[in-house]
């Protein structure tokens, strides 16, 4: 409720004993006075209050002006009851000094005065809702722990779930004009921007004075910002009331309401544990240099999500639309990033060798891919399977950040300017690590390392499959290579996959997608051959079915197509169990790209007995003249009637 000056003078001044105003201004003209009758003091004092000279310190000038007029502002000791929060000068050259009301060092909840300077010499308004100097003891009778318990159960009964974090602060609460000593307890969920209740517990009686959820839902919006390396980005954010927060609810995975945090990409500040928000609320995330790590993370995670969606129709790392939670400023000057389980923590880098790790798209995509792997092959993070795990992260890192084959090239400051090279794994920060270079690039360079060394060399031996990925993409392009790699990872590999299994499954995925023979499979076989899986034929992992009745064989054929630019002599084709008849030319020379065909039939007379009725697996063993691939096994399924 507000009244004009006449009522104010009659209603408030008449009941308040005041000392005579000190004149800190040279001249004054009062144009408007609005009184907050509930609080018993002015909320607006407007006019013209001129100083003899421009104040050296606007905050001090503001406070001394207010102190000089207790008749207007009802503060007995303004110098100790007002504290500078912020001073800003706008484009008109006007300066605005925002002061928090305090009492004996305690905040007075929600009470501020803003002193507005038209020019350096002139205050044109003092506005803001404060209360007269409180007349309360600042010694609580209720312990903070008791207040927190009260607040927690109060919020729990309001929202139905158990909140997890509380913090409390002693303050003055203006309860309908009556100053009360309270504990303000903030009750929140774990890193949840949508549960942030403020509960005011009377510090004398222990009663809840007031509580509310301090979250305002507005909607997804688009912000701009400056990322690592001072590069500008557009980022997807969310507007909560006046706040712009690093919460991307724009992706197909998002499921409203936003309060459920389902299918959102968020970036938190490890130093505060809070969601990153724009401190000055202008929707431009350029407020300080520490913010750059968050801007890059938010921008790059969005691009990575979109890559997996566009390339594979995969809805987030788990294909269930689960959100991604990122934290920047992790650790202290940490030269690392950690990913998995839908979380990514980015170190800031030491500023000497590395920029903040979120500053490179391939690093962000690498960490995101660790979560993809977790929800697909779930490759165990040790030894060969761990090296494959690392390699898939590198591979998709360079699918998303596709301008070269270097990992970490946008954050590594010192020589060689990157972390790893898929094109040439021998290159790297320490090229003398092994006689051949930084990372192995083929199976003959594979390092059998103990777990104590990089989980068994997961960041070391990853160079071998990395090289294969590069070689394949170099022939058939990144897009097709990515389809093969993703199919292998998501459909075929199992947690303890080793390199041989990976080699077979990669060929299988290529055959599934592009047929055989095909340039795509040839590229895969070539690449596998060049890293040390010496192959003449693409390994036929399909089972050749052979239907048979006891004593009445039904023939089937096996076709063997030679890959590789040389002719190969097939020296023998035999049944591993000796129970299949094989007819065809032996030995037989087949040229590159040529095919040899053998007829396989069931031999009841010398083979299976009635005890074997059912599906039986046998193997046809093919022996060749090639030293690269001397034998090849083709599984045969014998269906006995
Ligand atoms: Ca801003
Ligand atoms: Ca790049
Ligand atoms: Ca990069
Ligand atoms: Zn990794």
From TrEMBL:
<dbReference type="GO" id="GO:0004222">
    <property type="term" value="F:metalloendopeptidase activity"/>
</dbReference>
<dbReference type="GO" id="GO:0006508">
    <property type="term" value="P:proteolysis"/>
</dbReference>
<dbReference type="InterPro" id="IPR013856">
    <property type="entry name" value="Peptidase_M4_domain"/>
</dbReference>
<dbReference type="Pfam" id="PF01447">
    <property type="entry name" value="Peptidase_M4"/>
</dbReference>
<dbReference type="GO" id="GO:0046872">
    <property type="term" value="F:metal ion binding"/>
</dbReference>
<keyword id="KW-0964">Secreted</keyword>
<feature type="domain" description="FTP">
    <location>
        <begin position="80"/>
        <end position="129"/>
    </location>
</feature>
<feature type="active site" description="Proton donor">
    <location>
        <position position="459"/>
    </location>
</feature>
<dbReference type="Pfam" id="PF02868">
    <property type="entry name" value="Peptidase_M4_C"/>
</dbReference>
<feature type="domain" description="Peptidase M4">
    <location>
        <begin position="224"/>
        <end position="374"/>
    </location>
</feature>
<dbReference type="Pfam" id="PF07504">
    <property type="entry name" value="FTP"/>
</dbReference>
<feature type="signal peptide">
    <location>
        <begin position="1"/>
        <end position="19"/>
    </location>
</feature>
<dbReference type="InterPro" id="IPR050728">
    <property type="entry name" value="Zinc_Metalloprotease_M4"/>
</dbReference>
<keyword id="KW-0645">Protease</keyword>
<keyword id="KW-0378">Hydrolase</keyword>
<dbReference type="GO" id="GO:0005576">
    <property type="term" value="C:extracellular region"/>
</dbReference>
<dbReference type="InterPro" id="IPR023612">
    <property type="entry name" value="Peptidase_M4"/>
</dbReference>
<keyword id="KW-0732">Signal</keyword>
<feature type="domain" description="Peptidase M4 C-terminal">
    <location>
        <begin position="377"/>
        <end position="532"/>
    </location>
</feature>
<dbReference type="InterPro" id="IPR001570">
    <property type="entry name" value="Peptidase_M4_C_domain"/>
</dbReference>
<keyword id="KW-0482">Metalloprotease</keyword>
<feature type="active site">
    <location>
        <position position="367"/>
    </location>
</feature>
<keyword id="KW-0862">Zinc</keyword>
<comment type="similarity">
    <text>Belongs to the peptidase M4 family.</text>
</comment>
<comment type="function">
    <text>Extracellular zinc metalloprotease.</text>
</comment>
<dbReference type="InterPro" id="IPR027268">
    <property type="entry name" value="Peptidase_M4/M1_CTD_sf"/>
</dbReference>
<keyword id="KW-0479">Metal-binding</keyword>
<dbReference type="InterPro" id="IPR011096">
    <property type="entry name" value="FTP_domain"/>
</dbReference>
<protein>
    <recommendedName>
        <fullName>Neutral metalloproteinase</fullName>
        <ecNumber>3.4.24.-</ecNumber>
    </recommendedName>
</protein>
């Amino acid at each position: 409720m507000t009244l004009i000056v006449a009522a104010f003078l009659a209603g408030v001044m008449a009941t308040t004993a005041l000392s005579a105003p000190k004149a800190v201004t040279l001249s004054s003209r009062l144009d408007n006075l609005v009184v907050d009758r509930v609080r018993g003091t002015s909320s607006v004092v407007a006019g013209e209050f001129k100083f003899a000279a421009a104040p050296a310190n606007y905050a001090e000038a503001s406070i001394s002006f207010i102190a000089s007029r207790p008749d207007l502002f009802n503060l007995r000791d303004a110098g100790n009851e007002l504290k500078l929060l912020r001073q800003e000068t706008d484009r008109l050259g006007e300066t605005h000094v925002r002061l928090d009301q305090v009492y004996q060092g305690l905040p007075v909840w929600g009470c501020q005065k803003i002193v507005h300077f038209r020019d350096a010499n002139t205050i044109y308004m003092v506005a803001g809702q404060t209360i007269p100097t409180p007349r309360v003891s600042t010694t609580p009778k209720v312990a903070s722990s008791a207040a927190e318990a009260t607040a927690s159960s109060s919020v729990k009964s309001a929202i139905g779930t158990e909140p997890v974090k509380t913090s409390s602060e002693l303050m003055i609460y203006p309860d309908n004009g009556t100053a009360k000593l309270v504990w303000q307890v903030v009750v929140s969920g774990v890193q949840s921007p949508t549960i942030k209740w403020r509960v005011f517990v009377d510090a004398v009686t222990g009663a809840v004075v007031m509580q509310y959820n301090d979250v305002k839902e507005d909607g997804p919006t688009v912000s701009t910002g400056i990322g690592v390396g001072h590069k500008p980005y557009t980022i997807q954010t969310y507007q909560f009331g006046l706040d712009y927060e690093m919460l991307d609810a724009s992706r197909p995975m998002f499921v409203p309401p936003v309060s459920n945090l389902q299918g959102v990409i968020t970036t938190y500040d490890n130093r505060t544990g809070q969601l990153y928000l724009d401190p000055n609320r202008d929707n431009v995330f350029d407020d300080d240099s520490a913010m750059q790590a968050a801007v890059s993370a938010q921008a790059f995670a969005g691009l990575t999500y979109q890559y997996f969606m566009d390339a594979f129709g995969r809805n987030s790392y788990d294909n269930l639309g689960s959100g991604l939670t990122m934290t920047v400023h992790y650790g202290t000057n940490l030269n690392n990033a950690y990913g998995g389980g839908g979380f990514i923590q980015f170190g800031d880098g030491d500023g000497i060798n590395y920029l903040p790790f979120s500053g490179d798209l391939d690093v962000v995509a690498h960490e995101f891919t660790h979560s993809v792997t977790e929800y697909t092959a779930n490759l165990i993070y040790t030894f060969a399977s761990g090296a494959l795990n690392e390699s898939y992260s590198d591979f998709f890192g360079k699918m998303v950040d596709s301008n070269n084959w270097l990992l970490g090239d946008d954050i590594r400051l010192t020589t060689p300017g990157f972390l790893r090279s898929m094109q040439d794994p021998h290159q790297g920060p320490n090229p003398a690590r092994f006689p051949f270079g930084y990372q192995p690039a083929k199976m003959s360079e594979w390092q059998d390392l103990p777990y104590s060394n990089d989980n068994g060399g997961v960041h070391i031996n990853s160079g071998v499959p990395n090289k294969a990925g590069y070689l394949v993409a170099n022939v058939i392009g990144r897009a097709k290579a990515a389809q093969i790699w993703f199919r292998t990872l998501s459909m075929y590999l199992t947690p303890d996959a080793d390199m041989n299994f990976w080699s077979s499954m990669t060929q299988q995925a290529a055959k599934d997608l592009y047929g055989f023979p095909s340039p795509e499979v040839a590229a895969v076989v070539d690449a596998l051959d060049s890293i040390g899986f010496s192959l003449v034929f693409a390994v036929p992992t399909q089972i050749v079915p052979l239907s048979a009745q006891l004593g009445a064989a039904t023939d089937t054929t096996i076709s063997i197509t030679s890959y590789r630019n040389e002719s190969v002599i097939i020296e023998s084709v035999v049944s591993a169990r000796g129970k299949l008849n094989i007819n065809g030319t032996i030995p037989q020379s087949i040229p590159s790209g040529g095919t040899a065909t053998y007829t396989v039939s069931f031999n009841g007379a010398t083979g299976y007995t009635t005890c074997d009725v059912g599906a039986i697996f046998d193997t046809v063993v093919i022996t060749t003249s090639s030293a690269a691939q001397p034998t090849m096994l083709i599984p045969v399924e014998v269906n006995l009637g």
